[in-house]
Design brief:
single chain; 446 residues; 18 helices; 0% strand
């Protein structure tokens, strides 16, 4: 059940309990004080449709002017761009700040204005034949969205700023092989506080996804492609740890779910890749340069390869400290036992990169196959115990993927392949029986 819906239900029911004499008014207020008042839902439909309308109208105006664009004098072109920017941002900010009922429309107009601002950067460069480093336009555009995101404040502007900063990092890396060390501080230093202030799960999700791409781009350019995989793994383990901190501390648990879903999904994909022998051998083979490496290289290696791992493991130490303060019965609900395999996988990856010389591909992949199987067993057992069909299904799907991969790349004998099918099918069949039996016992107990 959605938390806001649950809180509304509790407030309605507690008022009814008071009327029926089941509890006193003071008791109802004490119960309600334990849970925050539900926040008003953001009018996404109004924002999206009015935003699309504003963008389409803006495109229509641009197309009308484009017909005679080449014949227009430079001053007229510049005046048109500035007039459109002032009109969109001025009307949008006025509605956003002065008319609460039109706040969503005002925000949509400012979003259209920010989009026009980005287009205006390239139009002005074209008008005056400015030959500039083109990724800088994304940075300037992002700063414009960032200023409005905090000034209004606006989640949509924050989302645009996050996307633009990630695009800036990507274009610098892909086109010019340049590392944008400012990108991550802009994403998490300038925009993460806004996500928490506005309690926006959408902005948080965009930041986490954009941050992952930025980590890959910057790490690959600043160091070498060998470090990208470990840096990404450390990043998602860190994010999963932050989500676990939210769940164990009870503060902003809705954010904990965003961290958990995005981080664990990416983590499972990365560990699944490492379960292949040739992939593990290639991705975990770290060869540090013996000569010619600059101080900038070593600094980047420390910043993007070593520090994220230390930070990730440190966050999980905090999770452990918070868990130990909870009653034993609550610990499994807050952080399931198999989640401790997440920092374990990171430790295994770092340990394998530190091994001197060549590591056999299945020695490298073995720990990650065991980690995946442990996750699968825990998911399926927890699903049966709690009668959560989603966990049972998730574990079954993972089991099929792992068994299918090993069926293809490890087993050559038809007998061995047949045994794999029998074991996996038997495990799934037994899981279904256990789940059905547990559900039936619960129904009989009720």
């Amino acid at each position: 059940m959605d938390i806001n819906r649950a809180v509304r239900w509790l407030r309605t029911e507690s008022a009814r309990w008071v009327k029926e004499g089941l509890i006193q008014e003071e008791q109802a207020q004490a119960i309600q004080a334990l849970y925050p008042a539900p926040q008003a839902a953001r009018p996404w439909a109004v924002i999206i449709f009015s935003g699309l309308g504003a963008v389409i109208v803006g495109l229509g105006v641009i197309l009308l002017f484009a017909y005679n664009w080449a014949a227009m004098p430079k001053a007229a072109k510049l005046g048109m761009i500035l007039t459109a920017l002032i009109a969109l941002h001025g009307s949008g900010i006025y509605l956003f700040l002065r008319h609460p009922r039109m706040k969503a429309v005002g925000e949509s107009l400012t979003v259209a204005g920010t989009m026009f601002f980005g287009g205006g950067i390239w139009l002005i460069a074209q008008i005056y034949h400015i030959q500039e480093h083109f990724p800088t336009a994304f940075l300037i555009w992002g700063f414009g969205a960032l200023l409005l995101a905090w000034a209004l404040p606006s989640v949509f502007q924050g989302v645009m700023a996050a996307a633009l900063f990630a695009v800036w990092a990507g274009t610098e890396a892909a086109e010019f092989n340049a590392a944008t060390h400012l990108a991550l501080p802009l994403l998490f230093g300038a925009l993460l506080p806004l996500a928490y202030r506005e309690r926006s799960r959408v902005l948080l999700a965009v930041l986490l996804v954009g941050g992952g791409f930025t980590v890959a781009f910057v790490t690959g350019v600043a160091t070498n492609e060998k470090t990208i995989f470990i840096s990404l793994l450390a990043y998602v383990v860190l994010a999963a740890g932050v989500g676990a901190v939210h769940r164990t501390s009870g503060k902003a648990p809705e954010f904990g779910k965003v961290y958990h879903v995005l981080a664990i999904t990416t983590y499972m994909i990365l560990v699944y890749i490492l379960s292949f022998g040739d992939a593990a051998e290639e991705l975990l083979e770290m060869r540090l340069p013996t000569a010619g490496a600059t101080m900038a290289y070593w600094g980047a290696l420390a910043a993007y390869w070593i520090t994220p791992g230390i930070a990730a493991l440190g966050v999980w130490v905090v999770v452990l400290a918070l868990l130990l303060r909870l009653p034993p019965a609550e610990r499994e609900d807050r952080v399931p036992v198999d989640l401790w395999l997440v920092p374990g996988a990171l430790l295994a990856a770092y340990a394998l990169t530190a091994v001197p010389g060549h590591v056999d591909e299945w020695v490298a992949a073995g720990p990650f196959n065991l980690i995946l199987l442990a996750h699968i067993a825990s998911l399926m057992a927890r699903g049966v115990k709690k009668h959560a069909v989603s966990k049972v299904a998730y574990g079954a799907i993972l089991l099929v993927f792992v068994a299918g991969a090993r069926y293809v790349d490890l087993l050559q004998s038809l007998v061995a392949r047949g045994l794999v099918f029998l074991l996996v099918g038997g495990a799934l069949f037994a899981e279904g029986i256990c789940y059905a039996r547990g559900s039936r016992l619960d129904e009989e107990g009720e």
